[in-house]
Design a protein that fits this description.
It is built from 12 helices and no strands. Helix 2 runs antiparallel to helix 8 and helix 3 packs across helix 8. The chain is globular.
């Protein structure tokens, strides 16, 4: 019995380390994307990033002797997942490019709250009044950060919110995706959706492609490598420890994102952002704790 407890604790510790590593690398990916977007059109950044990630996951799938296409790839949940992935990635990258990295990262942390609400509305999962209250409080945190109706409000803040909703929809659709699809295949088609998003936005924006120099190429390659590494670490985390023990460490991405925003892009933290992010993190952790206590 004691041995099993020790094993569980070790697994949870390792899972937590993998999760923190994933969140740190995701923040680095965001920083690379923001840096590349200063010079390159957003659509071009999305296309390069999507192609790089798709090639990486295709190689991983072939190394595991997995076919790159089966009929389940075009199933209804996967089509819905692709649509949400396109909107989520497009608007979040636009948010990173046009707004402070720190604020976009903070708003993204509300994704689990929207996922829980969506699971209740779409899949009929039971969510009591306490968790609904926590969801409401977390969304109030988002409103505090965006500050609608004040002089500090910017319509560009809506980009991060739309991106966050897109990611929440993607996560919900992933739960309904056929179990025959592996992590590598989900990653492959997720990144191909990013290519579609970039191509569509490029056509709409009408900007010519820019030949990246060595410095920008480094940013793009760094974003791809970081994206694939972070995704792999995330999957490793979720498969190593208990979900309830590992998931709370997702919120460390907020710390990494804010730190990189302040150090690399000279961003300033406002009182509204600190208060809002606190409410979001509190709500998310409460929902996780409440779910565990109910189970």
């Amino acid at each position: 019995m004691i041995a099993n407890v020790a094993i569980d604790r070790k697994a949870n510790l390792l899972g937590s380390i993998w999760m923190v590593a994933a969140m740190a690398i995701f923040a680095i990916e965001d920083a690379f994307v923001k840096a590349a977007s200063v010079t390159l059109p957003v659509g071009q950044v999305l296309i390069f990033f999507g192609l790089g990630g798709a090639v990486a996951f295709a190689c991983l799938a072939r190394l595991n002797n997995e076919p790159l296409f089966i009929n389940d790839v075009v199933s209804r949940p996967m089509r819905i997942r692709a649509i949400f992935e396109i909107f989520g990635r497009l608007f979040y990258v636009l948010a990173i490019a046009l707004t402070p990295l720190s604020s976009a990262t903070v708003i993204l942390q509300a994704t689990p709250l929207v996922v829980v609400a969506g699971a209740a509305l779409v899949f009929g999962e039971k969510v009591g009044w306490r968790r609904w209250s926590a969801i409401f409080i977390g969304l109030v945190g988002v409103i505090i950060i965006v500050q609608p109706g004040t002089n500090s409000f910017s319509m560009l803040s809506i980009l991060a919110i739309v991106g966050m909703i897109g990611f929440a929809g993607r996560d919900l659709a992933s739960r309904a995706a056929p179990a025959t699809l592996s992590t590598s295949i989900l990653g492959l088609y997720g990144f191909l959706s990013i290519v579609v998003a970039g191509a569509a936005f490029s056509v709409w924006q009408g900007k010519s492609f820019v030949a990246p120099d060595i410095r920008i190429s480094f940013f793009l390659i760094g974003a791809v490598v970081a994206g694939v590494a972070a995704y792999s670490c995330l999957m490793k985390a979720m498969r190593t420890g208990e979900v309830s023990a590992v998931t709370p460490f997702r919120y460390t991405r907020l710390l990494f994102g804010i730190t990189l925003g302040v150090i690399l892009f000279d961003e300033q933290l406002s009182t509204a952002m600190i208060v809002g992010s606190g409410l979001i993190v509190f709500s998310g952790l409460f929902i996780l704790w409440r779910r565990k206590s109910v189970e």
